[in-house]
Amino acid sequence: MPHVLTAAELPVPELFHRAEIWRKRLTEQPMPPLQPKAALVALLFYEPSTRTRAAFEQAAVLLGYHPLVLTAEASSVAKGESLQDTVRTLNAQGIRAIVLRHPQAGAPWQAAQVSEAPILNAGDGAHEHPTQALLDLYTLWLHYGKPDPTARWLSGRKIAIVGDIRHSRVARSNLILMAQAGAEVWLCAPPTLQPDAPLPHAHHTHDADEALRDADVVMALRLQTERMQQGLLPNLDAYRRDYQIHAERLRLAKPDCVVMHPGPIQRGVEISDEVADSPRSLILTQVRNGVYARVAVLEWAMEAPKTPSAG
Ligand code: ASP
Q1: Which of 153, 231, 239, 161 is nearest to 199 (CA)?
Q2: pTM of the predicted model as reported, rounded to 2 decimal places
Q3: Is the CB of 129 within 6 Å of ligand 1?
């Protein structure tokens, strides 16, 4: 069974296909009966989460598994157990898959080294969040009328990701998938919230107007204050003034530009209420699609044969 560690390894067309089946099952038809399997899927959430955790819990239930949610405070991590020993323990109990959210970049790779069951990265530090990128791409794919997912279907589209790029696993994973689909991706952040080195396949700017001009998609990011070692922002008012996605700034974008945000949103900081609640906002659509995308990924990871490269 493969692990799901990075966006780069996701078989996007196959996952879109599976997500479509689940979207139809869960929206257009009466729900098929669940087929309980008397087995567990573990959700190790060592950082707070609402959307990702709820979507993976639903995914486990929809596939017939019981979700076992373990947080750092409520598990043996609090007694000093290492991540790898926790994974070995869960494997020994026959857990079928482990969904892992962890504050440290690379933790899912460590877990994968010792796990028999697939490890699904649900966000590792400021590094990657592959299923968020998948659901964001899936949201755009539906929005643009389901173009051929094997083609460079975002080619000619400008996507501006604005905010705390430095600490954003969402930006990193999204960049991988969006660039793969042919988009022109702009990463826009204040100088102190830029990554240390430019990320490949992206345009970098400090100027939100430059990023937003003629954009087809604008994605706002939350300021990851929990990952900021010291005050990287002189003041929030200046951030609002220069980077908040509000109606007036959006006039620079294409008239049919849509707005995204991975959540949780901080209203009035990175995005105005007016924009967050406007018809051009895809924020709740992203949340809904997160369930279809995650059940697709979990199903695929648990069914697909183990590949040598995925270890
Ligand atoms: N929910 C996303 C994540 O876990 C974005 C955020 O927290 O700002 O990375």
Answers
A1: 161
A2: 0.95
A3: yes
